[in-house]
Amino acid sequence: MFYYFLSSQALEAAEILISELELTPEQITAEAFIQEREEKLDKMFPGVDLLPGVTKLIKHLKESGVPIAVATSSHKRHFDLKTTKHKELFALFDVIVTGDQVTQGKPCPEIFLDAAARLSAAAPPGSSIREQGGLKGEDCLVFEDAPAGIEAAVRAGMRSVFVPDAMLDTTGTLTPSLQIKSLEDFEPSIFHLPPYPPLPVENEQAA
After folding, report:
1. For domain 54-189, which architecture applies?
2. Structural domain spans, the chain
3. What is the pLDDT of residues 98-127, one digit of tens each?
4. Cβ-count burial 80-91 (b if 16+ within 10 Å, e if not)
């Protein structure tokens, strides 16, 4: 149930949840559930912290000239709330696509294909992306924490790194290119991306 719940639009997801819990309209309607949910999310989202390893990866890719995009199922209002504390970091992305900009949510690959098309359009004239006629699926690497996102990436023909949310059941997930416990464990060179610079070596003091 939760696999499809996460990929559904808000009203549809609320209707699925109410049906699964066998609640009656007298107890709560889908519309009332959404209203209560929005009130709670408005308080919770602005305090959201980044997962370990995210800042390091994003800054490294940007500094290395790798085109980067956000393709999130969250609607723009929720995305803006969740990134309240991280505006400078998310300003580094070349493209941001939110769930309300596509017609079908994950596991449909539409949002990833749309993000790739936008990155292609944003590429400067004379770049390798323009010369090859735009980004192909195999050119793209997706980072996901949800099974529906991995399925969307696979269906888009893209490589994927799965960093599963500990709260989710990942049974039945399509096989990602790589699965790790944390983005801190990610090594860009595995996917032929510029490697992280070596850590500075501290000068040894003379004995």
Report:
1. 3-Layer(aba) Sandwich (3.40)
2. 2-46, 54-189
3. 999 999 989 999 999 999 999 999 999 999
4. ebbbeeeeeeee
